[in-house]
Amino acid sequence: MTPPPPPRTPKSGLVLLLFALPCGLAAWYLLQRGNAEAHLIPWSCWGGECSTDDPRVFLIIGGVAANIACFAFALAALRAIAFGAAMALGPLASISGWREAVAGGLPAAEVSTEIKVWGAVAGVGAVIALLGLVYELRVSAAFAALLGRERVPAALEDYKDAGSGSGVGTAALAFRDRRGHPHRVEVRVPRSWTRAPLAAVYPAGDPARARAALPWLRRLITAETVASTVSAETGAPASEPSLVGELERLAALRREGHLTEEEFQLAKRRLLEP
To answer: Which sequence spans correspond to the domains of the chain?
Structure first.
């Protein structure tokens, strides 16, 4: 049997961000220059259609493409932050170009409406990015180390839906502390977290106060990593491809409604028994 590909690691996320950075810089430069010089491009119009041979027309097109590429590279690591940043970057670069054009002699009235409209769009993008950052810092417990918290791999067991239709329930957060002692702490988590690799974050020396936290680069972590995390907490081997495939199959059956949460947890426990 062909072994599964190795799971993507946080290093993959850093590589994507390194690609996103030059794309963002290129988007800013192209959109800024394109809008600064757009009024200088000569157009030939006839029959209701216009065209030009001036290559500067491609500056804005290239800037839009670079901004989309920046968003695509940054999405896996930054999620809502990437969307908001991309939404703000394009308008801000365009506004910078229009202001340069006005400084060079373009009547301000010709671009005043565009500056106001795209300024509002940039503001909305900045708010989305800020809210996304706040959310990510909260669910990933990014400041845990600065506050002296311990952070160790963990897994959820025995999830029970609250029944309110909110998609939030209770589960046992299973983990081993820094000394290797096992713990099970009841936590309240969204249902979607049962399919994600987790960490237990707790004050040093007090594992009973642990809470669940998501990894920052969770979209880059594959099912093999999830299975390894679960197995590390239960003592079951997770290196066999067949085990990973079975876990994926059970998760798919649960998502499609063929298994209840209780049936899924029972089947998973049986599968992971040594």
So the answer is: 10-139, 150-272
